[in-house]
What we know:
Layout (H helix, E strand, L loop, with lengths): L4 E3 L11 H12 L3 E5 L3 E5 L3 E3 L3 E5 L3 E5 L12 E3 L8 E7 L3 E2 L14 E21 L4 E20 L4 E3 L2 E13 L4 E4 L13 E11 L10 E4 L1 E2 L1 E2 L4 E3 L4 E4 L2 E5 L8 E3 L9 E4 L3 E7 L6 E2 L1 E11 L5 E6 L19 E10 L5 E5 L5 E5 L2 E2 L3 E4 L11 E7 L2 E2 L3 E8 L4 E7 L7 E6 L1 E6 L5 E3 L1
Parallel strand pairs: 1-2, 2-5, 3-6, 4-7, 5-8, 6-9, 7-10, 8-10, 10-11, 11-12, 11-13, 12-14, 13-15, 14-16, 15-26, 16-27, 18-20, 26-28, 27-29, 28-30, 29-32, 30-33, 31-34, 32-35, 33-36, 35-37, 36-38, 37-39
Antiparallel strand pairs: 17-25, 19-22, 20-21, 21-24, 23-24
Amino acid sequence: MNDQSKNAAYFGFSPDNNGDANTLALQHAVTGGGTIYIDQVGIYDLSGTIVLDSCTKLVFGPGVILRKVPAQDGTPCGYTFVNRGAYTRSCDHHIEITGLHLLCNGNEAVGAIPGLRGHLSFFYIRDLIIRDFHCPDVLHSCFCIHACTFENLLLDNLFIEGFKDAVHLGKGHKFVIRHGVFKTFDDPIALNAHDYATSNPQLGWIEDGVIEDCYDLNQETTTGFFCRILAGSWCDWRAGMEVRHSDTVVCNHKLYRVIMEPTGEIYRSYTPPTHAHGIEEYDGGIRWVMVQDDDELYNCGCRNIHFRDIFLQKKRDCAFSIHFDNDNWSHSCYPYSTMPVQEDLIFENIFMENQIPHLIRSSTPVNTIKLLNSVLQNSTIALRTLPVDGLVYGQTDILLSGTTFKGSGVQDLVRCDGGRNARLKIAASIAPDDYHPCICGSVRLLDSDIEIQVRQ
């Protein structure tokens, strides 16, 4: 980290200024990196995006609040913070933000980079730390923290409330999300290796992560899951292929995606996309965006992810969704493509504190699901298939160890639908006498220390 230290007040950053003046002042303070202190108590209006260089540390003192406001000419705020390399796809490193209290104040975070849409947005980033972060009012369209194409990410001590995703990750590896308190209408945490065409700038594997000591606080309305674990697959472009909004192809060692209205309309593609960057139209109106040219791949998903000490206080249909999309907004899996196998997902010390019919639900191939030392109440682990031609699912191994069952009556514990198959082992677990768990579908019970019924 650059050992140069600065106080933003020296550059004119002040609670007494308007948003335009503060944007210019804070940008001046952070340009070139170093450690920048903002320690005068007050609410600081900010009307524009602050671009951070490598080796930058922002330290916000107690009582310092950033409040987003439109510019005086009416221009929307855009991102609050973004790394400079996000615009050029060149990697920045060692950026840290500590103690930030952000008020969205009715403002979204749509910026200039297609698919990057977080108030705190980072793309092509290494060694990023965000700690002691508070944001109580995320709106409906943009995420709070968004990182894609990352390495070494630490998000520590977060309080995020609002409507859209609290933490939204794309392609990357080596990350920790810990000590998080979330109260969001949508997903608190989204591990979106694949994604909507407008919700991540690149596609790729999300690997080697720990998510721990996190709370999904209750509220009256909801959508989504505590964590969305999203995968996808696609194929080479070929003349005459059918495409729709969000479809991905490989062409000339580059990845391209279709950007159209999310109506479900199907188009015929006869001209291969060849442009080097941005969005271009082909065949009289099919809009293709060049997604990436430095990582040719045909599928993506999540692997080596460890959830531990998770407190599920919100009523949801499903807490953890191991997921493909298949709707007008996102088409995760192209017919006859090679599906990814999401791998080695561990769920440890999971506490269900509300009604959650499906603790874990999978529509993607997954090799192993381990549920350890957890409390499970009238909830099911469900494996399903996606109704897309040519997709092949393998076997899933499920281990439940040290589980306390608090259910009652007859309950599907593990269910395989649509040709999915699993092997199940239950060890060191305990259940009440009036709880009668069942396995349903093609589930082979290897061993269990509680009584399991089999039903078709």
